[in-house]
Specification:
AOC barrel-like; 164 residues; eight-stranded antiparallel β-barrel; mainly beta
């Protein structure tokens, strides 16, 4: 249960980081440095072994692009099937002085990385859309994005985002 909880936190952070894509339109890819800040333990659904649901919150810092230094906060809900998760819902906000964006993740998946029988991280990917963008990020309004997550340290991960 603890492993899935950690994984959920990581995946949530990844999804949130994806939303803070370049506002200027000149740079259409960048990364977020993320950590999980809270999650519910996976809740077994009781219909079969390994089938559960979980939710988690992430916090990320934009490492490049026009939102550099901005902070992303987000929440994701995943359905789990024996170490693999499918996103059911994901959204968040990225804030920086003079710019705010909100995003929704439309699809996503996450998988556990297991080394010597222990979960050591997660990888994930997905797609979303900026549902609101204001200030210097206004050009992101309505734009879609893709993302990929990768572990960087215990409990931490990066989200690499590309605005379409």
């Amino acid at each position: 249960m603890h492993v899935v909880s950690t994984v959920l936190r990581l995946s949530t952070a990844a999804a949130m980081a994806l939303m803070a894509v370049s506002a200027s339109g000149q740079q259409n890819s960048f990364s977020f440095s993320c950590q999980s800040v809270g999650s519910s333990p996976p809740e077994p659904l009781g219909d079969r072994e390994g089938h559960s649901i979980s939710s988690g919150e992430i916090s990320c810092r934009a490492e490049g692009g026009p939102l550099v230094g901005g902070v992303l906060t987000g929440t994701n809900v995943y359905e789990w099937e024996k170490g693999a998760g499918v996103l059911l819902a994901g959204s968040g906000i990225i804030r920086k002085p003079g710019a705010t964006t909100a995003y929704r993740v439309n699809e996503g998946k996450i998988a556990l990385i297991v080394t010597d029988g222990k979960v050591t991280g997660t990888t994930g990917s997905g797609k979303g859309v900026y549902t609101l963008a204001s200030g210097s990020a206004a050009t992101l309004a309505g734009k879609s994005f893709t993302y990929a997550t990768r572990p960087t340290a215990p409990g931490q991960f990066a989200i690499d985002v590309k605005v379409d």
